[in-house]
Amino acid sequence: MPRRPDPASHRWWTLAAVSLTQLLIVLDSTIVNIALPRAQADLSLDDAGRQWVVTAYALAFGAFLLLGGRVADYWGRKRTYLLGLVVFGAASAWGGLTHSGGELLAARGLQGMSAALMAPSALAFVTLGFPDGKERNRAFAVFGSVGGAGSAVGLLLGGMLTEFLSWRWCLLINIPLVVIGLVLGQILLTESHAEGDRRYDAAGAATATFGLGLLVYGLTLADRSWTSAATVGCVLAGLALLAGFVLIEHRSAHPLLPPRVLADRTRAAAFLVQSLIGAVGMGTMVYLAFHLQVVLRLQPVRAGLATLPFTASLMAAVPFAVRMIDRIGPRRQMVFGPLISTVGALLLTRVTSGGDYWIQILPALVLMGAGMGFTVVPLNNLALHRVAPQDAGVASATVTATNQIGGSIGLAAATTVYTAVAARSGAAGQVGEAVAGHRAVFAVGAGIFAAAAVVSWWLVRPGGATGQGPVRSSSGHSQGAGTIGERPGTR
Predict the structure, then answer these.
(1) Model pTM?
(2) Cα separation of 395 and 267, whole Å?
């Protein structure tokens, strides 16, 4: 059998393949949003169950990402990537064919767990394939913009599938995409994994997974009562387990998340900004979908189309962001981007029950999308700058985990804010209460965007990474990506 070409000469094709997977992962975090009202009615879900169709995916995804990153580093990135795709396809088929609300939630959780295997491997391939220079900026721009666009594309596609076929196709559509991903992955990707001792940190994995899970679950209970025993108990238990995770990682000889990954101030700032962006992104987009359908009474397809300006402005901003990053530096761009999105979110706080989409929502979506476009270009680059190759998988997992956990917490917090404000608004009728709740959610989103700008200004080092420097090993020596700290394998 002839030997396949060296994948280093096909790294842009590799980027295209893993970007398709990134689109699939992000798309599935939003594609069900517009389908929620019909799925809720079809499966007799209550409002809490409706929220968990989204939360189950995001929570399982975020909670298992660190473990998924280490599995990729130790067991093999290509092997882990392909396994994740297979399980994701099976979970999608299960969720799309079920007639039980409980089974749908379980299937969404399994989707999230399998996405936690795919995502770190996908981002690690980008990190190791583009170690430095302007090509690295362009590669992260492509990968980041695909992820950013995936949210809005999911809303549009979800609306079309729900209206013309069934909400079930929002899950079943994943199956052909998974098949394409498996074929491309098998052809284009080369196996690699970290060298040395590859023992797993079982205690770290358990405390991180259960700690994150309990924290987010406790926050989802807060929409009923912040002072109930269940809410307080879950939140405190989650925080205690996460504190234990930090202690374990500092003492473990084989940590799940090596402290050196978080030691760099700029990288830690990028992780924090990623979590803030994830929090406002998920909460705002979910409640925007509700506003378009419940308040403006748009059909699913029109509601999906109504979100396209967000994607269009994000994609339009990316080329400018790539050129600007070498001129003004990532720090200023990480401040500039969230501030633009802050203005957009503030515009959404002006929505009314009889408002006009073109005046109240369109300008806000354009500004939010443009701000996100300027933010995503430097964000992943800073988060993975100078990460040692043996930590590429877990560092990539941390990038995605902060986004997903931020999204889970953000959605739980948004639901709490919405419930509290809508109940106390005194507005006439259900629509009036909904508008009051939506305004409050959008106001909180604006505050979180502004906080991301402040974090970037204070913590990102001036003149930080622009993608020009080489990847460094943990000893500090410059290395080419994929040459030190990982062992190439055969296909």
Answers:
(1) 0.72
(2) 10
